[in-house]
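User: Before I run my own analysis I want an independent prediction to cross-check against. Here's the chain; please return only the C-alpha cells and, at the end, one sentence I can use as a sanity check.
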Amino acid sequence: MSNKIYLENIPVSAGLTRNTLRQGHLTSGPSKRTGEKLRGVKLLLAVVLLALTSCDYLDITPDNMATIDYAFADRYSALRYLYTCYSYRPPVGDLDGDPAMGGCDETWQRVNTLAFDIYRTFAPSHIARAEQNVSSPYLNFWDGYLWVGIRDCNIFLERIPDVVVDMIETERARWIAEAKFLKAYYHFFLLQAYGPIPIMDVNMPISASVDEVKVYREPIDDVVEYIVGLLDEAIVDLPTASAILEGTEAGRADQLIAATLRAYVRLWAASPLVNGENTAFQTVKDNRGRYLFPQGEPDLHKWELAAQAADSAIALCERQGKSLYKQVENHTVTAEPIFQLQSVLRRVICDRWNCELIWGGTNYSNATLTRYVSTRLLRRESMNSLFPEWAPTLKMVEKFYSANGVPINEDNDWVNQGWYADRYKLHDPSDPNTDDKYIVRQNEVTVNLHYNREPRFYADIAFDKGIYFGNGHYDFSDGSLFYCDFLNLGYSGYQGGSGYSITGYGCKKLHNYTNTQTSDTESNEYFPFPIFRLAELYLMYAEAVNEAEGPNGPNSAKMFARIDSVRLRAGLEGVKKSWSEHSIRATKFESQAGMRDIIRQERTIELMFEGKRFWDLRRWNLITELNSQPQGWYIRGETPEDFYKVTNAYPQYISFSTKDYFWPIRESDLYVNDNLVQNYGW
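Assistant: C-alpha cells:
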C-alpha cells in the first residue's frame, strides 16, 4: 500500500513536518475522544482497515503495491485510487464522529458516571458540555484524516493524466472533477471547524526545506474563493444526477451536489460569524502581520453572491428532476390524513435516494444511529437492544410551531387564551377535542404543550402518551397503534441500568416509520444520511435574499414562494397568511429583522436533528444560545403529576464564549510550526 505511506506523499498540513510525522504527532480522526495517538504509518493503515469494514462501496482502497506507479498503471487501478480519495469523507450523521450530532442544544445524552457503564459517551456530548480543550481536542480534525484525504486528491490529480491503458477521456475528465470536488469539500469542512486554514493546492516535494513545510493559515476570504474556484471547475465535468447509477455509484459527486455545496460555502462566508459582525476575530493575525479574518463592516455583496449561488443550484436541481418529497406510501393510503402526512415527513429522510435528496452520506452504517434514536414502544426481553439516549430537549420541543404555523409564544390563541402560560399543566383528557385520539392515547394524561402543534412536531417528536404511528401498524381503526410511555419504569422511560432518555422525549425522525419492534428484536431499514436536500437549499436562498434585499426587495416574491413551499409540504399555510391571521406580531414578515427570525426558526424546525443547528448557531454568531440549561421532565416520576416537572438534564453550569466558535489547534502543533497562530481565546 505504498501510495499510503510514501514519505513524499505525506501532506504538509497543520504544521506537521516529515520529522514530526516520524515522531508520531499524527492523531486519529473521526472517532478520537480521549487523545489516543497512532504513529504515522499505523494511522494511515488504520484508515484503510476502517474503510474496508464499511458497507460503503466507495471505501475501497488499493491493494498492497510496490510503488505509487502501480496505482495509476491502468484505468481500474486509478479508479480504486479515486475511491480512496472518497474514503476520507467526514462521517456526517454519525453520533460519535460528527460534532453536529449531539454537539449542541437539540439533544442531550445522560452523563455516564460509573466505570463499568456499558453506554458510551459520544464525543459530541463532550463538546455540548463546553469541554473542548487545547491539549487534546475532541474530534481533532486538524491533525487527522482530512489532510491525508487532500493529499491523496492532489496525488490523483497529478497522476491521472498519465493513465493511458483503457482510459476514456470523458471519464478522465469526470474523475478529475470528482477529485477537485472532494478537495474542495475537505478544505471547507476544515474551514468551518477552524476558520483560517492552509490551502493545500499541491503536495510539497520531499526536497522541501524545513521553512517551506512550515505552512501558514490563509485568510478566510482567500480560502473561500479557492474552494469556490475548485467547485466551479468541477461542475463543468461532473455528471448529472440522473447519470449516477444508484446500485454502484450512489454517493459519488454530481453537478447538483457541487452546486449545493458552492451555495452553502457562499452562505457561510456571508454569515455574521466571518462577515464583520464578530469583531473579536478581526484582531487575529499571523507572524507576518496579515489579518486572517475580514476587516471592517459586513459586506452585503457576499449575501448577494450566496443568493445567486443558491438560486443557480435550485434551478439546476429542478431541471434535473429534484422536487420536495410528497409521496404517500401504499400501505398508508387508508390511514387518516394526519398519519399520511407524518409518514411523508419521516420518509423525506428515510426513503433512500428520493426526489428531494441531493447528497446522501454512504460512508458509515446508520445502525448505531437508529438504535440510539428509536424509542422503545413495548416491553422487551432485552432492554439493551435499543439505547434511546439521544434525547430531544424541551427547548427544541418548544421551537415547533403551533397548529397555526407560528411560534407558540406568538400565536393569538396560545397567548390570549392562556395556553402558552399553562403549557406545562396537565391536559384534562375529558376535554372534547375531535383530533385527540390521533395525538394522544385516549383517556391518558399529558401536558397542554403537546396539543395544537404543527404536523412536524408529531412527525419528529415522541412524547409521553403520544401516538406513535408506524412500526407495522398503519390503521387506527383496529386500535393497535403504539404509544409512548416515558414515566418511570414505563417501557419508553427510565429503566435503571438500561439506556434511556434523560429528557423524557424521544426522536421519531432519523429512523423509518416502517421499522418494526417486537418483544425481542427490531428491524431497521438503511438510508443514506441527508447531507443536503432540496428543502435546505430553498431555505438557504430565502436567508440570503432576506439579508441582501430584505422582505421588500426585487426577489422577495421568490423568497416567500420558496420558504412557503417548505411550509406547505409540512401542512402549514404561507408566512404572510399565517402571521397576519394568527400572530400577535401580525406584521413581523414586513421587516428584515422579523423575516430573519422567521427564516431561522423555519430552518431550525425543518432541519432539526439533521446536524445543521450546530453549525448554524456558529455562523449566526449565536454561540451563547448553548449556555441555556438543557431541560426535560423529571424522568423518575411515576405519575403524570410527578413526571411533568421541568427539570435540568445536566446539573452543571455550561459556559460557551467567543473562543468556542472554532476548534482550538492542539498546543503541540504550535510548537512544531511557529508560523501557525492559535484560534482566538485558546
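Sanity check: The chain has 24 helices and twelve strands.
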